[in-house]
Structure formats: structure tokens, C-alpha cells
Design brief:
Number of helices: 10
Order of helices and strands: HHHHHEEHEEHEEHEHEH
Number of strands: 8
Strand order of the largest sheet: 3-1-2-8
Oligomer: single chain
Largest sheet: 4 strands, antiparallel
Helix content: 40-55%
Strand content: 15-25%
Shape: globular
Length: 246
Amino acid sequence: MSGHSKWSTIKRKKGAADQKRSKIFSRIIKEISVAVKDGGPDPDGNPRLRLALNNARGANMPKDNIQRALTKAKDTEALHEITYEGYAPNGIAIFIESLTDNPQRTLSSIRAVFNKRGGSLGTNGSVAFMFERKGIIRIPKGSFDADELQLEIIDAGVEDFEEQDDVFVITTPLDGFVPVQKRLEELGIEVENAELQRIPVETKTLDAESGVKVLKIVELFEDDDDVQNVFHNMEITDEIIEKIDN
């Protein structure tokens, strides 16, 4: 399992402790709002909205919350999709995706974290080339046979297929993300979570102490209400995980 994938799995398991449910819901609601404004309220004709609604259900968001988000989507303030790039200490690349109604506020907050924690905010494109856009789809294992499932979906555009505890994790290239989801729908398989991530082309290894410091910076960014996703190119080693747990 890659370091990036390993850290995603750890965060998923620790979700309640690391990230309050309300914050998860808030980020999904923002995604629903942007999806409706961009492509309309019909999920059948709006893939982005369909994905946001699937993720809402995967996060166990109550139906009333989802309906409220859909109803209010047209009336919410315009949200700007802005990305930020920079470096944490020891040359670790950081890529941040945000949805914000106040770009200046978000920029100030992100710059402050970089400056206070020994990093540096870069310009657009300064680290983007270090990542590839890929689809990551998680489905509960249930009663599925791994080999049979792979055969059913491989031709839709699957790049990698992993078993991680109680889920199957499917990785797709950017252009395979939607076709694989459609194939899973055809098979009647419910997705726990599906998202486009920025996967590092190469990872960088740090000692445990330095690695934990980088992850604390990542968590500070993730705590910002305007931030949707944070990606980095640090390898999550067993030593880093052990130090986090202690």
C-alpha cells in the first residue's frame, strides 16, 4: 500500500477523532452547492452533483440535511474554487483545494500556517506537476469476491485494485473515474466514497519526527473551513505512524 493511500485509510478509521462530523458535512454541502450552480439540480444530468450526493450518503449524512443543501444551493453565496501550492519543511510539496466565499481570507489563513510552521507559499504551478489527478473509489467488501469484482470492472478503466481492511479501494486514471462509477452503478454496488485526488508522482521520505511535524501542518490546513482537500508528497512510513500513535 502506498504511503498516501495508507494515510487516507488511517484518517478514515480515525474520522470521528480527527475530523468532526459537522466539518465533513459542511464540506459536502459546499460541494453540493457548487455542483448545483454549475450543472443544475438534476443528478442524472449532473455527474458532479451525483458524486457529491453519493459521498453524502456514504458519510451517513441525514436525508433532511441533504435535501436542505439542495434547496438552499441556488441561494448560497458564490463559492470560488481556488488552489494553493507551497512547501512544508524539508521540501515536502503541499497542494490545497478550497471552496471559499472570501478568497482574501482564505489566502491569509493559508499563508499564516505556512509562515508559522516553517514552510512557504508558492505560486500556481510550483508543485502541481508533482501530482497526478486520479480517481479513488472505496466500496464496502460485503459479500463481493475480489477476483470476480475486478473482472467485472477492469475494462471500465481501473488502474489499481487493493483490499484494505473492510473496503476495496479502486484507483482510476482521470478519464476512467466516471466510467468505473457507472459500471459499479450498473452492478448495483453502492460506493462508500469516491473522489478525485492528487496522487504524488514520487514521494519523499522523512524521519519520524519531521514527518509528524508535516502531518500537523496538513491537519492545520484541513481544519480551515474553506479548505476541501490537502495533498502532499511525503511517504507515510510505519515509523511515522508509530510516532503518531504514541
